[in-house]
Write a structure and sequence with these properties.
The structure is a single chain. With 221 residues, the protein is an all-alpha fold. It contains eight helices and two strands. It has one domain: Growth Hormone, Chain: A (Up-down Bundle). It has a two-stranded antiparallel sheet with strand order 1-2. Helix 1 runs parallel beside helix 7 and helix 6 packs antiparallel against helix 7. It is globular and about 55 Å long. It starts with a helix and ends with a helix.
Length: 221
């Protein structure tokens, strides 16, 4: 049980990072949500109909970066000997630095591009916790699961459904807590608030160490 609890705690801290970047990009960079592609690809269709070539080029580039991150994850998972969770932390740290350094450039779109690489890597590295599949970079499926499972509990008095529903609600709380954090920091520090993302990243690394130690203690590996 200790392992599962620490795995879920890790999942929650990483969800804060996902929410942080979601809020940060919306507030500071042209209302773009770099964590997911649905809205951006819808924007592509709209801009194509309007003939706005600059926006079309950016969205296509962002899509290619997002796709490349998935390719990177697949290759890294096969050939790297370290945990992909550690790889995700390294990528996140690099993206914070790149975004911070690019902030203040004449083109707001440029600074957001590294975030498109971060999102798929974290999503793939932290897909499950406590037996539940859950994204840490967006919330649509988490909302669906949280509501369905809670409804199931009220209809069937299924305690397992209530437990799993609680997991999704907590994930949502952490995700939107991260979004609120980045929004408030952006109000005070503008686009430079991205540097504060090192705080939830540090907490996530600490949570990962505790999780790994619990596994080592339990399984001796």
């Amino acid at each position: 049980m200790t392992i599962v609890k620490r795995q879920m705690a890790l999942h929650n801290t990483v969800s804060v990072i996902g929410g942080f970047f979601g809020g940060y990009t919306v507030v500071n960079h042209c209302d773009i949500i770099a964590n997911a592609q649905t809205g951006n690809l819808m924007r592509l269709v709209v801009q194509a109909c309007r003939g706005n070539l600059d926006s079309i080029g950016f969205i296509i580039l962002a899509f290619l970066i997002y796709a490349a991150a998935n390719v990177f994850y697949a290759v890294a998972r096969r050939y790297m000997r370290i945990s992909m969770k550690i790889v995700s932390f390294i990528v996140t740290a690099a993206v914070i630095v790149l975004t911070g350094l690019l902030t203040g450039a004449d083109n707001d779109y440029l600074a957001i591009l590294p975030v498109f690489f971060f999102a798929p890597v974290q999503w793939n590295a932290f897909k499950k916790a406590g037996g539940n599949s859950s994204a840490t970079i967006f919330s649509s499926n988490n909302v669906r699961q949280a509501v369905l499972l809670l409804t199931k509990y009220f209809m069937d008095k299924d305690k397992k459904a209530l437990k799993n529903s609680r997991f999704y609600w907590v994930t949502l709380l952490c995700f939107y807590g991260g979004a609120a954090m980045s929004t408030l920091l952006s109000m005070a520090f503008g686009a430079n608030s991205v540097w504060f993302c090192f705080l939830p990243l540090g907490v996530s690394v600490f949570a990962y160490v505790r999780y790994r130690l619990a596994k080592l203690k339990a399984f001796g590996q």
